């Protein structure tokens, strides 16, 4: 199992869009190895048709904020094909987590991207699965640019805010403070939302709007909480090399929480570790399945 760990240095300060940098050869390589992929949902979480959800084996290469998926053996001098670029996944503002409820295959983790695409990835073993989860989340935590300011005015119809695909220019400490501010704001919004649930008689569009807002805020709280845990652990460790950082997470009991796979059913975990005051929701949901609970298919 090939695995390359590079130091966590700022990859770019140009602010270029990730799509502009897809062909970049200067971006640091953070991890590589074989993964088996299944596309579970397209953008906005829309379920992919059953016939298009098959498992496919790729050689995965995490360079910067892009997870490239190549067919066949990896060679450093091999050019990325158009199909490779089409299969590439941007991990900005994404969250990887263990698919603990998926029983059909072992060592499977789930990746939800900024536009709410959902992927399942199977790693060769449990150690590699956890390593991929930690690397993806750490890179996303370090380099996802702060979100755009909220639009002025009230939105009647819920729509998820567009998240920037550029590389963050902030230092690690500034990046962590940015994540903490977002975590506090989202925790407050989620608390406010759950303080005034719709009347039980309410059905249809209004209930669906409430459910979508709740699901979005709950996921974002978990995502930012996970980012904060990893950045705090990384800053505390003072370690730049990702492989060494991972080993420190395993060895140091005070850092192990950051290495554990995030779950969306216990969003209070993020609150506890980041030591922020926020309403404890116990992971209760209004309706529908939790975002990380994937139907068996």
TrEMBL record:
Which stretches make up the PH domain? 28-141
Q: Which GO-annotated molecular functions does the record name?
A: phospholipid binding
Residue ranges with Low complexity bias: 265-279
- Check the record and name the Pfam families matching this protein: PH_9 (PF15410)
| Compositionally biased intervals (Polar residues) | 10-20, 287-297
Q: Which InterPro entries match?
A: PH-like_dom_sf, PH_9, PH_dom-spectrin-type, PH_domain
Disordered: region residues: 1-20, 257-297
Tell me what this protein is called: PH domain-containing protein
> Which organism encodes this protein?
Oryzias sinensis
């Amino acid at each position: 199992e090939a695995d390359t760990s590079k130091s966590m240095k700022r990859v770019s300060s140009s602010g270029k869009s990730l799509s502009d940098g897809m062909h970049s050869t200067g971006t640091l390589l953070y991890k590589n190895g074989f993964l088996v992929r299944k596309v579970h949902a397209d953008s906005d979480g829309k379920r992919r048709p059953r016939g298009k959800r098959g498992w496919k084996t790729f050689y995965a290469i995490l360079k910067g904020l892009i997870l490239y998926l190549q067919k066949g053996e990896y060679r450093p001098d091999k050019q990325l094909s158009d199909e490779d670029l089409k299969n590439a996944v941007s991990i900005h503002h994404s969250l990887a987590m263990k698919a603990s409820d998926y029983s059909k295959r072992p060592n499977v983790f789930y990746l939800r991207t900024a536009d709410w695409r959902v992927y399942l990835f199977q790693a060769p073993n449990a150690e590699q699965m956890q390593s991929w989860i930690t690397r993806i989340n750490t890179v996303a935590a370090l380099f996802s640019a702060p979100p755009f300011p909220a639009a002025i005015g009230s939105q009647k119809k819920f729509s998820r805010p567009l998240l920037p695909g550029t590389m963050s220019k902030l230092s690690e400490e500034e990046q962590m403070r940015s994540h903490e501010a977002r975590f506090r704001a989202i925790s407050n919004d989620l608390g406010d939302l759950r303080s005034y649930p719709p009347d039980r008689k309410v059905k249809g569009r209004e209930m669906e709007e409430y459910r979508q807002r709740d699901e979005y805020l709950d996921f974002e709280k978990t995502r930012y909480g996970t980012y904060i845990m990893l950045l705090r652990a990384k800053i505390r460790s003072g370690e730049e090399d990702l492989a060494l950082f991972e080993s420190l997470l395993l060895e140091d009991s005070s850092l192990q929480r950051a290495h554990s796979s995030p779950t969306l059913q216990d969003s209070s975990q993020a609150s506890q570790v980041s030591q922020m005051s926020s309403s404890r929701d116990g992971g209760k949901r209004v309706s529908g399945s939790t975002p990380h609970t994937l139907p068996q298919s």
